[in-house]
Amino acid sequence: MVLYLTFLRYAAIFFLSVTVMDMMVLLPTFMYGEGRAATALERITFINVIGQYYSTWIVFLFTVLVSMMAHIFIYFFEEKRRALAIKREKEAIIHEEDTAFHTVLVRGIDRDLSIEQAKGYIHSVFKTLLEEDLIQTHVIADYQ
């Protein structure tokens, strides 16, 4: 979910940047071109600047700029994805190590005790030793 929201954030920034630059650079270039626009819609497209040397170069350079921005967008998104993957990997390792460091296996419990009695006895022993640090106790029956 975090990765999807990150993608949406970076995509929104990218498309907002492209839209603002388009409105500031390309739209005036197309509108004030002296091409062969037959309709009002064609006045705001590349058709209106065909044959005009400098206007064509502006469109070309803008296309290169947008392509570079797309590559930058992909780069930042990939870096964020890698950072999240590394963070999740580290959290999993810490969680497993933390659980392993705080786990005790007790063998040799009287088999005549019920699971509830054994759990209650073990819980009371560790509760007196660890006080507030004891989180849970589990008893597994018929361990071979």
Question: How would you describe the overall organization of this protein?
Answer:
The chain has about 140 residues and is mainly alpha-helical. The protein has two domains: about 1-100, no CATH class; about 105-144, no CATH class. Helix content is about 65%, strand content about 0%. It has helices at about 1-30, 55-100, 115-130. Helix 1 packs antiparallel against helix 2 (about 55-100). The longest helix has about 50 residues, at about 55-100. The model has no long low-confidence stretch (mean pLDDT about 80).
Salient structural properties:
single chain, 144 residues, mainly alpha, 2 domains, 3 helices, rod-shaped
Number of domains: 2
Terminal CA distance reads 42 Å
Low-confidence stretches: none
Secondary-structure-derived class: mainly alpha
Percent strand equals under 5%
Note the main sheet.
none
Overall strand count: 0
